[in-house]
């Protein structure tokens, strides 16, 4: 899995790392049980501080995407608490949709975007 960081982005580097790993899971580039690189390896590969990678891994653990094992390191272990995830998504979507509504983006356009994104995941998964 290729992880790239945009050092010019306003988004924190650890969040970029988290988002890219989550996208990797969604696209089936990495799957349940796969090990992620060690903190040191990923930091060297991406060119960031080890503490940044460590923070990303701890956030991913808190959010239920990975487990941290002393022998295997960071392992993809998606916590399947669907109700809790739906509630978290609802809160995040509330803000995203409010921003879209302020810019006159229609319900149909949003539905089209959601379908497009899910189609990308499925297409990537079936490669």
UniProtKB/TrEMBL annotation:
Keyword Transcription: yes
UniProt keyword Secreted, yes or no: no
Keyword annotations: DNA-binding, Transcription, Transcription regulation
GO molecular function: DNA binding; DNA-binding transcription factor activity
InterPro entries membership: Tscrpt_reg_HTH_GntR (IPR000524), WH-like_DNA-bd_sf (IPR036388), WH_DNA-bd_sf (IPR036390)
HTH gntR-type domain sequence ranges: 11-79
Lineage: superkingdom: Bacteria
PANTHER family with a match to the protein in the record: GNTR-FAMILY TRANSCRIPTIONAL REGULATOR, HTH-TYPE TRANSCRIPTIONAL REPRESSOR YTRA
Designated name of the protein: GntR family transcriptional regulator
Lineage, highest ranks first: Bacteria, Bacillati, Bacillota, Clostridia, Lachnospirales
């Amino acid at each position: 899995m290729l992880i790239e960081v945009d050092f010019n982005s306003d988004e924190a580097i650890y969040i970029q790392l988290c988002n890219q790993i989550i996208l990797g899971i969604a696209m089936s580039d990495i799957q349940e049980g796969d090990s992620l690189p060690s903190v040191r390896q990923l930091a060297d590969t991406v060119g960031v501080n080890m503490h940044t990678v460590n923070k990303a891994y701890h956030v991913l653990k808190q959010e239920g995407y990975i487990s941290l094992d002393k022998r295997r390191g960071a392992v993809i272990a998606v916590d399947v608490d669907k109700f809790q995830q739906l509630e978290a998504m609802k809160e995040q979507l509330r803000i995203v949709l409010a921003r879209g509504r302020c810019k006159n983006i229609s319900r149909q356009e949003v539905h089209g975007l959601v379908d497009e994104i899910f189609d990308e995941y499925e297409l990537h998964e079936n490669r």
